[in-house]
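Worked Example 4.2. Consider the chain below.
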Amino acid sequence: MDQHDPPAAEQPPSSLTSEPEPATPSQRPQLEIRKSGRRFEIVGLISTVVVFAITSGTATLILGWLYAFHDPVAAGGGIMSAVQNGSFVIRESSGLATEQSTSGQEQTLRILTFSALASHLVSLTSTILVTLLAYRSANQWLLASENPDDVNLTPIQYGLLVRTLGSGSLMSLVNTLRYTCRSKRATAPRLFKEAFISVAGIYILSHIVGVTDLWLHSRTRSMSIFRGVPDQSEALYSLGYNETTCGTLERTGLPCQRLISTRSNRTYWADEEPWIHLAGLDTFSGTNPDIALEYVDNTTILVPGPSRNFKSQGFTINTYGLKVDCTNLRDQCDRLQSPFPVALVPGSSPVTNCSKAGYPHFPYYTSGELEFSGYDSRNIKNMVLGIIGSEMGGMLNGTADFSTGWTSNPATMIVQLRDTPSLWWNHGTPGVLYLNALDFYGKCKMAYLDVIAEYDPIGAEWTIAETILSRPELASIFWTPMIFQLWTSEVRWSLTPYTYTGEDVISLLASSISKYGIASTAPLMKFTPAFNLTTPQPIAVGLYPVVPTLLLVGCLYIYSVTALVIFFLSCTANKRSIFVPRQLTGKKERDKKKSSLDVAQSWLTDPLPPVGSMFPGGDGRHVARSVQSDPLRQVYDSNWGLVKVGIGLYKGSKGEMIFGLMRQTGTRARRYGRVFSMQDDTKLHGTVAPQLSGWNCERTLELEEQSSSAKHPQLEIRMSRRRFRIAGLLPTLCVVAMTGGTGTLILGWLCASLDPVEGRGGFFSALRNGSFVVTEPSASDEFLLSEMQTETLRILLFSALASHLVSVAGTVLVTLLAYRAAAQWLHASETPDAASLTPIQYGLLVRTLGSGGLMSIINSLRYISRSKRGKAPRLFKEALFSVTVVYLLTHGVGLVDLWLHSSARAVSVIRSTPVEVESLYGIAYNEAKCGPFDKTELPCQNLITVSEGKVAFSVAMDSTASVGSVYYTFLDVNPYLKLEYINGAAILVPGPSKHYQSRGFNLNTYGLRVQCDNLRDQCERLVTPFSEILVPGGSPVTNCSKAGYPQIPYHTTGELKPWGFDTRNIETLVLGIIGDEMGGMVNGTANFTSAWTPNPASTVVQIRWPNITADDTADSPVVAYLNALDLYATCSFSYLDIVARYDAIQAEWSILEESLSSPELASVLWTPLMFQWAPDFLLHELTPYVTSRGSQAMEILEKTLARANMAFVTAFTKFIPASNVTTTRQVALGVYSAAPTFLLIASLYIYSLVAIFAFALSSISNNRIIFVPRHLTRDGEGDEERSALEVAQTWLTDPLPFIGLLFPGEDGREAARSAETDPLRQVYDSQRALEKVRIGLYKWINGEMIFGLVRQSHSRTRRYETVFPLVDGDCAPQEEMADHGGEATLSLPHVETGEAAS
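Applying the procedure from the previous section yields the following C-alpha cells:
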C-alpha cells in the first residue's frame, strides 16, 4: 500500500464518490521542474551494479579459470601459445569411473558449466539492462517535451516503447519491428528509433551469448593425459655391478676371476654356476622376472624386470648398455673362384682366407680343406673371437687365450658363423656343398656404456638421457661370457632366417650381439635406488576452441560495459529534478526533490503510471503520487477501494458501441446489474482523470451533436454455439516445438545413443543405476595429441539448447496464460457481483502477462504482499501464480542445466562395431603347393624328392623364402603369419603386415595340440652308483622295450659300455608311429608302408644334447654319460580345424570351436616332422632345461613341437576371408547423472503440457465473439466475427489498447479499432497524425500541477510553441523561467479548464 494512503478510519469509502475541492496556487505550493546545478546525479545504480557484477564477474571467472588452470605442457607454451594454436588446454577436475565396467578416467568440463551459467545469467539480466537503457530514452523524451518544435512520440510509439523498454522480450520487439516496417505511419522520432535499435541490440547480444554457448558446447572436447607427481619413496630400480659375484675391477688375473674354472686342461666360465647362464638366457628371452632388456637408439640396456612392479612410476636409473657397430668382413676376404655349379644364393661362394682384411687366421678351423670343386670339409664353427692388440682369442679357453684378458673400451670382436644345414642330411659328416655354405664373417666394435635411462610410465617407454663409456676393467668383465663362446649358437640361431633368404644381416648381427652381450651380464648386477621418482596420475584436460571462448567472454564484457556506459550517460543527463513541497510529502516536514529522469523512466517501462493517471483516486493525493519513481506508488489503491476495471462493450460519445475498459463501481447502496462505461458517470470525476471526460473540447462537442447509432449497426458480443474455438494456436505450437521438441530430442538421443554395453538394460535400467551412459561423437584433435581420443558431450549441448530455447519460450507461454486470465476477466466483467480488477491490478497484469519478466513479477509480488490494498480477485492471483511458476520453471530448467553440466563426465573406452569389408585373415590348406590327398603317394608329394636312393622333403623347393618363412614364423618375425599358443594348442594367425590389429573377426585356421609323457622313466637304464651320486636320475637309457618301443634309443653305431662310456650315435629325432611301424629315421614318411597317419598321430621323441670334446676341434659322438641327460618322450599330435576369434579391444586371441582335422590333412601337416626338420628347434628351445626332465621340460617340449610343426605348415597355406569382422575404435562415452537428466526432460515436457493445457482452456473458453458490421471492417465488404477472448487478451498483455483508449484518434474509427485483435491496429497512427505525447507537468482540474502525460498537438494552421495538456485542447500555455535561489526553475503553463493560462 502507498505510504501516503490514509487509513480507512480517516477516509471512509463514501469519500471516493465525492469530487475533490478546488485548490488555488495561493493556497498550496505546486510541483515544479527545476534544473539541477550538479553535473552528475546517480540514477539506476543498483541495476547497473547487478548487471555489471553478473556479466563481468562471469567473464572474469572464465578468464581467471583459463589462466589458472591452463596446461602449459599439453599446449606447448603459455596462454598466448594456446591462442595461437586455436585451443585452450585446461586441466579439469576428474575422478575414477563409478561403474566398474567404465573403468578409466572420467572428466567434467568446467568452462562449459561457466558458459551455461553465463548464458543463464545474461537471460536474467537482459530485462534489467533494458530498463537501464530506458533512462537514456527518458532523458531524450524530457528534452523533446521541453521543445515543442522537437519531434515527439505518437501515442502508438509511446505504447510500443512502454512494452519494449519494460520487458525487452521477443514479442515486444516483433511488434515494434512490425510497426517500423509499415509503409504508412507517423514519423518516428530519434528517441524511438534509438531505443528500438538499442533494445534489439541487447536482445541479439544476449542471444549471441546463448548461441556462442552452444557453439562452444559443440566444439569443446575432452581427453585424459597422464602426468608425473613427485614420489619420495625409495625404489630399487637402478642396476650396478656386483663385485661379490664376479670379483673386483683390479687387473690381477683374468676378468671375473671368481667364475673362471679349469678342468681337463680347459678353462670354463661359470661352469659350476649353471644358474648364471640360465639367468642370461632368461633375460634375453624376456622371462627373467628381475631384469629385462630394452633396445633404445641402437643400444641395448639393462632395466628392471616385471617383478619390480615399476610400470606405475616414472623414474631415472643408472644402468649399463651395449652398443655394437658391425661391418661385413666377408666382402674383404678371398673367395673360391670355381667354374662349377652356380650358387643358389648370389655371392655365396665360400671364403678361403681373410689376410687382405688383416685377419689371416680367418676362417678359423683346425681340420679339413676347401677343394676346387667346391666341396668344403673344413670344420668351421660358429665363433665370437676377441681382439686385444695383435692377439685374437676365445677359440679354446676364452679370455685365457690372451696374454692378458683385459680389453679396452670399445672392444673389438670378429664373428664367424656357418650355416650348418646342407641339401641333405649326412648324419654327422661335416662336409657341405658350397651352394649352402652361406658363411658369415664380420667385425664388430662393442662399446660398453654407463647409462642414465628414464622410464616414462605414460608412454610405457624407456629413453636414454646420457651415456659415457664404462671403465675398460668393467668392459673386460662384461665381454668375458661372449669370449667363452657361451652365446655363439644363439647368435647363429637369430640369423638363421636371414641366411636362408640372403638378406643383409649386418644390422641384425649388431642388435643380436648387443642383446646377448648385455644379457649375459644380468647375473652380475645388483639393484640400487632410482632417483627422480614420480607417480603418474591421470589429468583430465578440456580443449576449448579459442574463438567461441573469447567471443563469449567478449560479449559478457560488452554487456557489462554497455551497462556502465548507460549508467554514466544517465547520470550526466540527470539534470532535472521535480520540486515537491512539503505539503505533498509523506511526513510533511520538509520539501523534497525527485529525479524527473527516474519518474519519466517509470512512464517508459511500466503501464502503471498511465493507469494511475487515468484513475487518480479519491484521496486527493494524486499529485503526490504522480512524482513517485516507484510505479506501484503512482496508482491509487486501498483495501476499501471500490473502483474496478472490467472489459466489454460500452457506448461511446457518438452513441456507437466500443470494446474496451469499463469501470465497475459499487456504493454502499450498490446498484447491482449496472455497468458504467468510463466516460458516462459524472458522479465519480474525482476518481478518474479528466482525460476520460473529454479528449478535445471542440471535438467532443462536435461528436456529441452526431448520433450514428441509428444509422449503422453496432458492435455486439454474441455467444458462440461452438464449444471449442481455437485460440493461441501459433504460440502453442512454438512453445511445444521448442520445449517438447528439445525434450524429445534429448530423450531420443539417450535411447538411440545409449551404450549397448553399459546401458544394456535399457532406459529404465539406467534410471535405476543412477546414470545414463551414452555413446558420444568423437574426433582426433589436430592441434595436439592427435593420436589420442577426444570426445564431446552432446547431451550437454542439447541441455544448453533447451535452456536457451526455454528462455525464449517463456514470454510466449506467458501470453498463452493471458488467454485464461482474459476469459476470467470477461466473465467477471459480465457479472456485476463478481470481483474484478482494480486499476493497479490491471496495470500490474499488463506488464506481468506481457513479458513474464523478473521486474514485473517482483512488482506484482510486492503489491500482493501489501497489508493494505484492494482485494485481489481470483484471476489476478491465478495469473500471478501461473506466471511465477512459469518463470521459476524457466529458470529451473537453467539450474537443472547447470546441475547436469557439473555432474556430467566423459570417458573413453574401446569398442567394436561391425564392418562390411573383405578381410583375408582366415587360413586354409593350399593344395597347389603340397598336392592333393592321394593315398597312393606320399603326403605332400609336391615337396618330396628322391636322389641317390634318399628321400628328402624341403619347403625350399618352392623358394628359399619359404624356408625363411618357417624360421620367421617360429621366431615371431614373420610379417604374414605368426603362431599363437592358446589352451595348449599352437594355431596359425595372420601376421602384423595384415594390419588386423584394429579389427575383431572370426577366422578358420589350423592348430596343433601336443601332449607328451616322459618315456625315460619307463625304460631300462645302466645302473651305476657313481652316476646317481653326481647327477640324480642321470643314468643313461639302454632300451625301452618294456615301454613298448624296442628301437628306442635309436642309433646305428656304437655301444654303451658297462662302466658308462657311451659311443652310440644317438641323435635328436622325432619318430612317427603308424600301427606297429616306427619311421622317420632315414627317409621320413617313406619309412612307412603307408605314410598316412590317423589323427591324433603318435610320435616318439629322443633328444641328445651336443657335447664339447676336450680339444674342441670336432664333433664326436663319444660322450660321458654324466652329461648325456638324454630325453625320451611319447607325444600325441592332435591336428585341429580351428575357429578362432581375435578381440581387438583386449588384443587377444581365443578359440571358439575346435575339431579334429581329417586324417589326410593330419598326414600332410606332420610330414615335415618325419623328415626331421624339428631337431634344431628342439635343441635350441630345450637347452636351458638340459638338467630337467620333469614336468617343466615336458611343457616346453610340447610347446616347441607344436610351434615347430605349425611353423612348417605356413609353407603350404593360403589366406581366405574372415567372418564377423568388426572394427575397433575408441568410443567416447558421456556419463550423465540420471536425476538432472530426467528432471530436465520432465521440465521440458511439463512446459509443453502447460502450453497445451493453456491452449485447451483458452479454446474451450473462447465462446464469445464480437460481431463487427461490415462498415467497421477494414475491407468494408462483409460482416466479420472476432474472438472477444483474443481482443481481451491484448488488453492484458500490451499497453497499446490502453493507449488507444487514451488517444482515440481523429478519424472516427475508434469503434472499429477497439475490436481489432492486433494491438498495433488498436491505436490511431498515420503520416498526418499531429497528436504527440510529451511528459511533464500540467494543470489538474482543481488547478494543481501534476506530473504525467501531456498531449502535444499541432493544428493544420500550426501554432508553434503551443502545448496542449490532455485535459484541454484550447489552452495555449507559455514557459517561464524564474530564479529560485540560484536554481533554474521550469514553470510549465498553469491551465484552467476551458481557458488558457498566461
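The chain has 33 helices and 55 strands. The mean pLDDT is 79. Compare this with Example 4.1 before moving on.
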